[in-house]
Amino acid sequence: MARELYTARLVRKDCLSEADHCFHFHFVLEDLESFSFVPGQFVSLLARDENGKEQTRAYSIASAPDGNRFELCVNRVESGFFSNLLPDLPVGAAIQVDGPHGYFTLRQPFTGSLLVATGTGIAPIRAYLQWLFPPDGPNRSQGKEIWLVYGARYETSLYYHQEFAAIAARHSNFHYLPTLSRAPQSWTGLRGYVQQHVARIVEERAARLGLPLPQPPPDPSIPARELRFDIYAYICGLNEMVAGVRALLTGYGWHRKQIVFERYD
């Protein structure tokens, strides 16, 4: 079956980090009045290269549903086709897309959530947070505790930093924990890798709730599709980080179904 393609017109482009050559893109789908997707999903972009070969690249949507609009977060990579095409795309130009796709979405019923990201892996997490805590809409978090552990080498690589800090200031159940692995002396926030801060959150939460660690396995008589958890982890970033956090959580006895992840190389 042929996939249905849409025309996405670039209406705004912002540089998030000159040091990282990271850009934020606002697109409007001209073919649609409304673009229906679930926060955490991605779109595929299509274009022909200089040899006439069709290239396709998947990018997580970095925004919550908003009419026929969607947003992307992309780093320029020296050898990348789309990662150079997009930053060079002038406002007003168009590109072909299809979607939405993917299952890196918030599980229902909604629970406490541990969000972990590095680099542009923050894109689908931003979509979650825009949906959960819209500035001009209903709070959908249901009062559940939500942690965002966002790791980078340098402060310039903490994309949307002020936006997340503002959400944390408005909502006491959202805990924003940016951490730098190569922090300068002037940095007053957390230091180190995301794994060590995820470990602290899990251990402190278990102690507060009186839960044993590692947690006992679920009742084997309950089918996997019917398992219910009081907290999920959502992890997005480079493969090495994702693998490390998954190993950490499974070591605490977390079930594989409560660890949702998306990774890229």
Walk me through the structure.
- With 265 residues, the protein is of the alpha/beta class.
- The chain has 2 domains: 96 residues, Elongation Factor Tu (Ef-tu), domain 3 (Beta Barrel), CATH 2.40.30; 153 residues, Nucleotide-binding domain of ferredoxin-NADP reductase (FNR) module (Rossmann fold, 3-Layer(aba) Sandwich), CATH 3.40.50.
- The chain is built from 5 helices and 12 strands.
- The strands form 2 sheets. Strands 4-3-6-1-2-5 form a 6-stranded antiparallel β-sheet, with helices on one face. A 6-stranded parallel β-sheet has the order 10-9-8-7-11-12, with helices on both faces.
- Strand 3 and strand 4 form a beta hairpin.
- The longest helix is centred in the C-terminal third of the chain and has 16 residues.
Identify the notable features of this structure and list them briefly.
265 residues, alpha/beta, Elongation Factor Tu (Ef-tu), domain 3, Rossmann fold, 6-stranded antiparallel β-sheet, 6-stranded parallel β-sheet
What are the SSEs and their pairings?
Elements: E1 6-17, E2 22-29, E3 42-48, E4 54-60, E5 69-75, H1 82-88, E6 94-101, E7 112-118, H2 122-132, E8 146-152, H3 161-170, E9 174-180, E10 190-191, H4 194-209, E11 231-238, H5 239-251, E12 259-264
Parallel strand pairs: 7-8, 7-11, 8-9, 9-10, 11-12
Antiparallel strand pairs: 1-2, 1-6, 2-5, 3-4, 3-6
Helix pairs in contact: 4-5
Summarize the entry for a quick read:
The chain is α/β, with parallel strands linked by helices.
CATH 4th-level superfamily of the largest domain = Nucleotide-binding domain of ferredoxin-NADP reductase (FNR) module
Strands side by side in the biggest sheet: 4-3-6-1-2-5
Question: What is the N-to-C order of secondary-structure elements (H for helix, E for strand)?
Answer: EEEEEHEEHEHEEHEHE
- CATH architectural grouping of the largest domain: 3-Layer(aba) Sandwich
What is the fold named in CATH at topology level of the largest domain?
A: Rossmann fold
What is the domain tally? 2
Number of strands: 12
Mean pLDDT: 95
